[in-house]
């Protein structure tokens, strides 16, 4: 049996384009797929990923980068993602970086070792848009 290096953590269909869906991964990637090309989506149409700062790399980098939830905005123009320490808003027309990043529980950054020891670092969090996409 092969050892898994990356798993899908969340997925959602586009609210108005039934042929498009997005999924997130344990490595922090968000992929948009279009089923008009073919039903087997073994290649993505767009990859949303932030460049990692090599200076900030630590033992916990990959764990806290894991995206636990992804949601389309009601109009389908934006994506909302949640990892362990941030909520990010992505524009579907700009794959290189999020348009907004909101730190969540920044005070936990210094306690990552303790959170790892009691498995709390593997908790999954959901995110959601308000009715007016804010």
Automatic annotation (TrEMBL):
Naming one, the record's GO cellular component terms include: protein phosphatase type 2A complex
InterPro entries under this entry?
PP2A_PR55 (IPR000009), WD40/YVTN_repeat-like_dom_sf (IPR015943), WD40_repeat_dom_sf (IPR036322)
Gene3D superfamilies, alphabetized = YVTN repeat-like/Quinoprotein amine dehydrogenase
Give the residue spans that cross the bilayer: none
SUPFAM superfamilies per the UniProt record, alphabetical: WD40 repeat-like (SSF50978)
Q: Which UniProt keywords apply?
A: Repeat, WD repeat
Molecular function GO labels = protein phosphatase regulator activity
What this protein is called in its record is Serine/threonine-protein phosphatase 2A 55 kDa regulatory subunit B
């Amino acid at each position: 049996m092969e050892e898994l290096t990356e798993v899908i953590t969340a997925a959602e269909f586009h609210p108005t384009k039934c042929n498009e869906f997005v999924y997130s991964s344990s490595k922090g990637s968000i992929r948009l797929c279009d089923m008009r090309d073919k039903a087997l989506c073994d290649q993505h149409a767009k990859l949303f990923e932030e460049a990692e700062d090599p200076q900030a790399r630590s033992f916990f980098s990959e764990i806290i980068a894991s995206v636990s939830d992804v949601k389309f905005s009601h109009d389908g123009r934006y994506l909302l993602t949640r990892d362990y320490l941030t909520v990010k808003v992505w524009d579907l027309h700009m794959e290189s970086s999020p348009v907004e990043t909101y730190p969540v529980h920044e005070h936990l950054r210094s306690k990552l070792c303790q959170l790892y020891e009691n498995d709390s670092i593997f908790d999954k969090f959901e995110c959601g848009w308000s009715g007016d996409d804010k």
